[in-house]
Amino acid sequence: MYLITLDSETDFDGWRKAARAFALHHVAPADVVWHVQGQTKDPGPGLSEAPSLPPIETESTFTVPANFIELARIAILHRDDERFALLYRLLWRLKADHDLLATMSDPDVAQATTMAGAVQRDAQRMRDLVRFREIGREQKAHYAAWFEPEHHIVAFAAPFFARRFADMPWSILTPDVCAHWDGHAISFTPGISRTERPPPGRLEETWRRHFQPDRLTTTEAPVKRQRNLEDASILGPLLADAERWTGGRIVQRPEAPMTRKTAADDLEALREEAAHCRACHLYKDATQTVFGEGPKNANIMLVGEQPGDKEDLAGHPFVGPAGQMLDRALEEAGVDRKKVYVTNAVKHFKFVPRGKVRLHQKPNTPEIRACRQWYEREVSAIQPDLIVAMGATAAQSVFGKITPIGKNRGRLIDLPDGRKALVTVHPSYLLRLPDPEAKVLEYQRFVEDLKIAAGLQRKSARAA
Length: 464
Ligand code: URA
Prior knowledge:
By secondary structure, the chain is an alpha/beta fold. The chain has three domains: 2-124, no CATH class; 131-232, no CATH class; 268-463, Uracil-DNA Glycosylase, subunit E (3-Layer(aba) Sandwich). The protein contains 16 helices and 15 strands. The chain has helices at residues 12-24, 66-75, 83-96, 107-129, 154-164, 203-211, 213-217, 230-245, 267-274, 309-314, 321-333, 365-382, 392-399, 405-408, 427-432, 436-463; strands at 2-6, 32-36, 133-135, 142-146, 170-173, 177-181, 186-190, 224-226, 300-304, 341-344, 351-354, 357-360, 386-390, 412-414, 420-424. The strands form four sheets. It has a six-stranded mixed beta sheet, sandwiched between helices. Strands 10-9-13-15-14 form a five-stranded mixed beta sheet, with helices on both faces. Helix 2 (66-75) crosses helix 4, helix 2 packs across helix 8 and helix 4 runs parallel beside helix 5. Mean pLDDT is 83; it is low at 214-264.
């Protein structure tokens, strides 16, 4: 009997190395006990560390299908203690039956596949549910979230958050391990016990207790640093393959988690979810989330900056002065507003109070990024052919980066997902122009830009 102790619950490389050595030495699965360092569970009476195996003869080698390695990489993140043994049993059996993974009715194949599916779903749950709260002072803003994963998915899912919230330093605290992003690299520190789970509204205290910024870099140095998004590039192809070996049952890839059609992308469910959004601090002062509106089958999506004072109170986009200007221009351009979906890059009103007035404030990059998930999920639900970005904030959200209006306006631009984008000015810009002549000219240009959208609306009406 051999006892093998892995470095951690997610020590895939350790498992792989040991499994390969055991298989080459014809050590049957029943003769191996898998254990994780630091695990309190006793591996069994009388078990000592595996005696060193004799050197592997060069001719004794074997290959396993690449998709097994990929399946194992994900299934190993499952919390079931039996996973290491199950995966070694599969490896052992693959030596004799190279096509074993194609037999979905095989209990070992089915169990490993089910485990990988559960891991995937848990990672998706994390991507859907993690809500960052702003903690710390303005200049030292930090965003933190608490999450309790079912499986060992934190390191697996962290690159997604690094990509999506690349501009904001964040920490995701979990009982297993805490992940941190400083804008350059992901690092990990030990988890926070469930007994210290932050009560609602007390996340900042827990974060401070464990991760005072100076402690993080000195006494509590991260246990592991992961090079910037290194994992993300590994995970893309890996998960694509995961779909293959499960016959398409694992459907979510981390690189495009919000572009799928799921129940969560049902507009009404999205609207409800967004109503409780705490992804940035803007919800605190705004009256409500102002979500997009329009028909589900709209082929044009108009994107503005953020709700204004009137929209914040009414709960509908573009109903104030900018909305009236937009309505007029759409009509002149020949676009039927009732057939377009109208939304904003940022869904809460950002303002500073001045006496009785609330003065509009432009949203900053972290706020735009924090809100982008809703825009992406609206796009996923509506599937528009054309997205019209009105103003710089909308353009930043639509293109995922700062995109100058002047250089890009008035022409159709291909988006990576195959849709078209059109950039133009924001109607509020026209309202603010002091010179009446410039106002007329700029308004005409705005209408001309919208005529491009009108052309597309006419074309698809003909095609329908
Ligand atoms: N400005 C916007 O960008 N959106 C609105 O909904 C209103 C004003």
